[in-house]
Give the backbone structure.
Amino acid sequence: MKSAQTNATDNATDNATDNATDMASDTSAISDSQATLRERRVGAVLWGRIARFYSCQLRLASAHLRAWELSPAQFDVIATVGRHEEMTQLELADRLLVTQGNITQLLDKLEQRGLLCRCREGRLKRIRLTEAGRKLHDEVVPMQEEFQARQFASLSPSEQRQLLRLLRKLQQTHR
């Protein structure tokens, strides 16, 4: 449940977003420098909105995954490795956009729980889910996908596809 302070902050941000958007779109009566300033403000408001949404969703996902004693990062490992028969530790780190050090810590914990195993093949460490890891994968992935779908249910399917296209465009621009 949101606090009154959080609601007030969200409302103030919504008003600032609306004002900044209105001002940025009505540039006919203002100078180029004023338009640039307003566009930057819209950018800052967008960044803030995305950051808050991500933070909220991460908290909700953490609470949801607690039923399986998984963090969102551990879920990502189980889901990613589960989509493949096996993969190297480096491939996994690249896919999850984390460092080798971070992936090692995640894998250590999951290996201690008996959910995955690492096998050395020459200089590579190959990662596979164990039988227990595969069972957990088959249970938790559909539940998490369903949970995440509910998080976007306020958007129509068309709006969801549009959001996905816009986010993909931003991501490709800033690689």
Remarks:
- The radius of gyration is 21 Å.
- The chain is about 70% helix and 10% strand.
